[in-house]
Amino acid sequence: MKVKVNRKAHFNAAHRLFNPNWDDAKNQEIFGLCNNPYFHGHNYNLVVSVIGEVDPDTGYVIDMKILKDIIENEVTSKLDHKNLNMEVKEFATQIPTAENIAIVCYNWIREVLPENLELKITLFETERNWVEYPA
Ligand code: NI
Question: Which pTM does this prediction carry?
Fold first, then answer.
Protein backbone atom coordinates (compact mmCIF):
# COMPACT_ATOMS: atom_id res chain seq x y z
CA MET A 1 0.00 0.00 0.00
CA LYS A 2 1.51 3.31 -1.08
CA VAL A 3 1.28 6.48 1.00
CA LYS A 4 2.07 10.05 -0.02
CA VAL A 5 3.96 12.11 2.56
CA ASN A 6 4.33 15.86 2.24
CA ARG A 7 6.76 18.43 3.56
CA LYS A 8 6.38 22.21 3.23
CA ALA A 9 9.24 24.59 2.63
CA HIS A 10 9.57 28.26 1.87
CA PHE A 11 11.96 30.53 0.01
CA ASN A 12 12.08 34.12 -1.17
CA ALA A 13 13.52 34.87 -4.57
CA ALA A 14 13.60 37.52 -7.26
CA HIS A 15 13.09 36.98 -10.96
CA ARG A 16 12.30 38.55 -14.28
CA LEU A 17 10.30 36.86 -17.00
CA PHE A 18 12.01 37.74 -20.26
CA ASN A 19 12.68 35.92 -23.49
CA PRO A 20 15.97 37.15 -24.99
CA ASN A 21 14.80 36.05 -28.44
CA TRP A 22 12.02 38.68 -28.37
CA ASP A 23 12.19 42.47 -28.52
CA ASP A 24 11.08 44.68 -25.61
CA ALA A 25 7.58 45.19 -27.00
CA LYS A 26 6.92 41.47 -27.35
CA ASN A 27 8.30 40.75 -23.86
CA GLN A 28 6.11 43.50 -22.44
CA GLU A 29 3.07 42.17 -24.26
CA ILE A 30 3.58 38.59 -23.03
CA PHE A 31 5.01 39.09 -19.54
CA GLY A 32 3.69 42.54 -18.52
CA LEU A 33 4.68 43.47 -14.95
CA CYS A 34 6.77 40.30 -14.66
CA ASN A 35 9.08 41.72 -17.36
CA ASN A 36 10.25 44.55 -15.06
CA PRO A 37 13.98 44.90 -15.90
CA TYR A 38 14.70 45.67 -12.22
CA PHE A 39 13.26 42.29 -11.17
CA HIS A 40 10.57 41.58 -8.56
CA GLY A 41 10.21 39.07 -5.76
CA HIS A 42 7.94 36.30 -4.60
CA ASN A 43 7.47 34.41 -1.35
CA TYR A 44 7.45 30.91 -2.76
CA ASN A 45 5.87 28.04 -0.90
CA LEU A 46 6.95 24.58 -1.87
CA VAL A 47 5.35 21.24 -1.05
CA VAL A 48 7.53 18.22 -1.69
CA SER A 49 5.52 15.01 -1.87
CA VAL A 50 7.10 11.59 -1.69
CA ILE A 51 5.09 8.50 -2.54
CA GLY A 52 6.09 4.98 -1.68
CA GLU A 53 5.49 1.83 0.28
CA VAL A 54 5.52 2.05 4.07
CA ASP A 55 8.67 0.40 5.38
CA PRO A 56 7.49 -2.32 7.81
CA ASP A 57 10.52 -1.79 10.04
CA THR A 58 10.15 1.98 10.51
CA GLY A 59 6.52 2.61 9.60
CA TYR A 60 7.83 5.41 7.37
CA VAL A 61 7.75 6.08 3.62
CA ILE A 62 10.72 8.36 4.25
CA ASP A 63 12.09 9.73 7.50
CA MET A 64 10.88 13.37 7.59
CA LYS A 65 14.23 14.48 9.03
CA ILE A 66 15.91 13.09 5.92
CA LEU A 67 13.36 14.75 3.62
CA LYS A 68 13.80 18.05 5.47
CA ASP A 69 17.57 17.88 4.97
CA ILE A 70 17.20 16.96 1.29
CA ILE A 71 14.93 19.98 0.68
CA GLU A 72 17.31 22.32 2.49
CA ASN A 73 20.41 21.01 0.74
CA GLU A 74 18.99 20.56 -2.75
CA VAL A 75 16.48 23.41 -3.01
CA THR A 76 16.21 26.15 -0.41
CA SER A 77 19.96 26.66 0.01
CA LYS A 78 20.20 27.16 -3.76
CA LEU A 79 17.17 29.44 -4.21
CA ASP A 80 16.46 31.33 -0.98
CA HIS A 81 17.21 35.06 -1.24
CA LYS A 82 18.60 34.61 -4.74
CA ASN A 83 18.08 36.44 -7.98
CA LEU A 84 17.03 33.42 -10.01
CA ASN A 85 17.98 34.86 -13.41
CA MET A 86 21.42 35.99 -12.35
CA GLU A 87 22.52 33.60 -9.61
CA VAL A 88 21.07 30.19 -10.49
CA LYS A 89 22.71 28.65 -13.53
CA GLU A 90 19.65 26.60 -14.48
CA PHE A 91 17.86 29.89 -15.25
CA ALA A 92 20.60 31.30 -17.41
CA THR A 93 19.05 29.31 -20.25
CA GLN A 94 15.39 28.99 -19.23
CA ILE A 95 12.84 31.52 -18.04
CA PRO A 96 12.28 31.27 -14.24
CA THR A 97 8.52 30.79 -14.36
CA ALA A 98 6.86 28.76 -11.60
CA GLU A 99 6.66 25.90 -14.12
CA ASN A 100 10.39 25.87 -14.76
CA ILE A 101 11.28 26.39 -11.09
CA ALA A 102 9.15 23.35 -10.19
CA ILE A 103 10.93 21.23 -12.82
CA VAL A 104 14.35 22.35 -11.56
CA CYS A 105 13.37 21.54 -7.95
CA TYR A 106 12.13 18.13 -9.06
CA ASN A 107 15.37 17.34 -10.88
CA TRP A 108 17.55 18.40 -7.96
CA ILE A 109 15.62 16.29 -5.44
CA ARG A 110 15.22 13.36 -7.83
CA GLU A 111 19.01 13.02 -8.04
CA VAL A 112 19.31 12.21 -4.34
CA LEU A 113 15.97 10.52 -3.59
CA PRO A 114 16.02 6.70 -3.46
CA GLU A 115 14.81 5.28 -6.78
CA ASN A 116 11.92 3.35 -5.21
CA LEU A 117 10.22 6.59 -4.09
CA GLU A 118 8.06 8.72 -6.39
CA LEU A 119 8.30 12.48 -6.23
CA LYS A 120 5.88 15.33 -6.85
CA ILE A 121 6.54 19.06 -6.55
CA THR A 122 3.86 21.64 -5.79
CA LEU A 123 5.07 25.22 -6.01
CA PHE A 124 3.00 28.22 -4.96
CA GLU A 125 4.19 31.48 -6.47
CA THR A 126 1.30 33.33 -4.84
CA GLU A 127 -1.64 32.18 -2.74
CA ARG A 128 -3.72 31.92 -5.90
CA ASN A 129 -1.16 30.65 -8.41
CA TRP A 130 0.55 27.29 -8.11
CA VAL A 131 1.95 24.58 -10.32
CA GLU A 132 2.46 20.85 -9.91
CA TYR A 133 5.14 18.68 -11.51
CA PRO A 134 4.79 16.03 -12.74
CA ALA A 135 1.28 17.09 -13.86
NI1 NI B 1 6.95 37.03 -10.85
Answer: 0.97
